[in-house]
Amino acid sequence: MNKEDRRVRKTKNALINSLMKLLDEKSIKSVTVTDICDGADVNRSTFYQYYSNPFDMLEQIEAEIYRDFVNEWEKQGSYEEKMPVSTWLELIYLNRGYSKLIFGENGYSDILIQLLSRSDHEFQEQIKTLNPKLDHKDIEYISDYCTYGTVAIITKWANGGFKESIEHIAEMISMLNGNALRTFP
């Protein structure tokens, strides 16, 4: 997170908390600046110092979360050494305060797909290594299947309140994706 004045961080956190409460009740498309400001107990002019509208606010929050994930990803080495599923889940769990923004039915985000797509080329190379006879189109299908399946499992886990352990969800994702890779001729 950027080094910001403590008052600025406090104000932005109040605005973010207000937005998250509103997303319990309605979609991001229905949230107004006035709604957010009323919930945060700040003036509209204060909101406009940081954001142009609720969508801009959401995009800035997503961008910050994305940067945090990418920073973790880039700390890793080769694809095989890159973050295991459990590390992704741990980061998601640590950022669970934003889960309504990322996963909620009233949220508006494809951040998980963006994050998983970062590794798509490397993942496709791994598929090609495991199954050298596959053509490029089949590799893309398998990659998309694994990516969107992973997003679906993580979304269900988050929307269910993160009740299952990180280890359980990681094992399930790894097993299902591993089976997808191994069962294809």
From TrEMBL:
InterPro entries: Homeodomain-like_sf, HTH-type_Tx_Regulator, HTH_TetR, TetR_C_Firmicutes. Keywords: DNA-binding. Residues 32-51 bind DNA. Residues 9-69 form the HTH tetR-type domain. Coiled coil: none annotated. Gene3D superfamilies: Tetracycline Repressor, domain 2. GO terms for molecular function: DNA binding. This is TetR family transcriptional regulator.
